[in-house]
Amino acid sequence: MTTTFVGRGSELDTVTMALTEHRLVTLTGGGGVGKSRLALRVAERVRGEYADGVWWADLSTLYDDRLFTATVCDAVGLLDHNPRAPIDGLCEWLTGRQVLLVLDCCERVLGSCLHLVGELLSAAPQLTVLATSRKPLATRCEHRIEVAPLSTDDGGEAMRLFRERCATAAPGVSLNSPVASEVASGICRRLEGIPLAVELACARLRESSLAEIAERLDSRLDTLIDETVWPTRHRALRTAIGWSHELCDPLERLLWARLSVFHGPVEEADAQSVCAGGPLSIRTIPRLLERLADQSVLQRDGTRYRMLDTVREYGAMWLDELGEKHALTQLHAAHFATVVEQAEAGWLSDRQVEWYARISDSHGDVRAALDHLIAEDPDAALDMAGRTGLFWPCCGHLHESRDYLERALALDIPEGSSRTRALWALGITLTLQGDHHNALRVGEDCALAAQQDTDRTPRSALFAAHTLGLTHLMAGRPQAAYDVSDHALVVYGTSPPAGAPQLCCMVIRIFAQSALGRLDEAYEGAIALRSLSHEYGEHWARSYAFHQLAFIDLLRGRPQVAERHARAMLASKHNLNDNLGIALALDLLTGANAAQGNGIRAACTSGTGLTYWRMLGHPNRGTPELSEIREQWEQQARDAAGTNAYNRAFLDALHEDAEQGLAVALQVPPTI
């Protein structure tokens, strides 16, 4: 949160105690009353009581139930590389862990929350759930705590909040005189002590006097507010939000309404692209964003702007009143389709890491754009879904990737490069889930689509070769992987390379050569790929070149060189937020440490690596040929450290926070 926490001392104690006595505690209350902020403060207070951490799932941006479980998986760090149902993976992941899971804004997906919480509490006996919701979950084991507004008596918590926010928003305004104090106290009473309403009123002190604010609140009518969206019991909050809306100038109100189409924090450039039009020019939007933030309509979040759920609902209501909802939703979808297209085009460049971060930060908006396009524009939907293939599988969004790709491919769209690309993306998604049978079928469909592709581009053939090659490789068929990737590179490879699919095929060929024992060819190919990747400034393919260099160095008795290569891979994969790559790199670093006789360091990297493999739920922990040699590395480390010392170090690392363990592993920087 960007502001301090005022009051709520007794509520903090009550909720903290309730968590020791009940496994499901729900904070209920109206919008703007402070449920989320109270839950956040409670989570901070009790963090040390839960050995395996406190996890926060923000459900405020969800607009249907379909993405609910995936959102919770993301929140707890589960990137399930498994075709099983996400809820099964989540149950397995949380079983045996002492965790506090906070589900914020459950009213959005109440039915799904009820079902999921029931399943999780049954499967994970040490799990505790803290939920916030405008409505109770209504399950038998639920302990409900109603979050009341702040007290409005003289010197109460509402007045304390008013004084603090006034000092921030308008430091020149004094509340020390009896008259000023009484007027401010009256404003707090008029707003019924609702924190969000008080903050919105304080934001107006930059431009209005206390007396003017009080007068406006007393005289304001709510005739334009939809009672189905803003029930009578929320009268004070709707008065404050509606009054803030009225005091905005027309362009600020228009931007407020248009920003409601976003499903997460908003970058200035995104707001300009989606919201500009008519009287709202691109040049004025940065200034208007700052104005809305000054008025507490928006909250600054680094370089982005965040809109509270309640405020977004009000903006969405006005967008509908303006008759712009459909048009803005289309603009939003078109914009993020363009963002994904630009990200794919920029993949083979020194902006690759930046693009991975951009797609990750825009995840909620990318999903919303795809949902709209699937319903409204099938061709654009298929094109966009296929382009996520370079990003979502890499970042662990496999269930979502599969869902969107299967839905897009089910649309009635003729053959073409978009369909070939989407089949490629689905094929690699299925392979990474371990569903090799279906992955092979989709890969063969992709190869057929590439042959029938009216565009006849080398990229289509290379996409098909990559998904087939990856499936063969992960299923233990390295010769087939080599044949398909080598043929595609010989026939369709270009110089300079034809984008991402050519480098992907190069990676497959090198891994296949290594698995076949053709180590000289694999090492030479990895050096060439490393040089090519360095020339373009990209990291994904280069990291896999480092993987093979480290692996072959270990096989040939060069553990110190292998360690440098493994660390270089680890750094690149960390930059990309590629947890599969991180797990693979930690395995190699374990081998390098073990081969150098450093059993304790090997135990630590092995424990952290296993944490990442568990997060992934990966059935094979990488390609098949790694299994046997991984056992050899472990035995070497045990022999070097002694069994007891090894076990202690391994278990300490296994139970440590994954990010902390990774930070330790990254302490020695790569020198290559």
What is this structure, in a nutshell?
By secondary structure, this protein is mainly α. It has helices at 9-21, 35-46, 68-75, 86-94, 110-123, 157-169, 178-190, 195-203, 210-219, 235-247, 250-259, 268-275, 285-294, 309-321, 325-345, 352-361, 363-376, 378-387, 398-409, 417-432, 436-452, 458-474, 478-492, 500-515, 519-536, 540-555, 559-576, 579-595, 599-616, 626-641, 643-655, 658-665; strands at residues 24-28, 54-58, 99-104, 127-133, 142-146, 266-267, 299-301, 304-306.
How does this model look, in words?
This protein has 672 residues and is mostly helical. The chain has 32 helices and eight strands. It has helices at 9-21, 35-46, 68-75, 86-94, 110-123, 157-169, 178-190, 195-203, 210-219, 235-247, 250-259, 268-275, 285-294, 309-321, 325-345, 352-361, 363-376, 378-387, 398-409, 417-432, 436-452, 458-474, 478-492, 500-515, 519-536, 540-555, 559-576, 579-595, 599-616, 626-641, 643-655, 658-665, and strands at 24-28, 54-58, 99-104, 127-133, 142-146, 266-267, 299-301, 304-306. The strands form two sheets. It has a five-stranded parallel β-sheet, with helices on both faces. A three-stranded antiparallel β-sheet has the order 6-8-7. β7 (299-301) and β8 (304-306) form a beta hairpin. The two termini are 40 Å apart. The model is unreliable at 220-233 (pLDDT under 50).
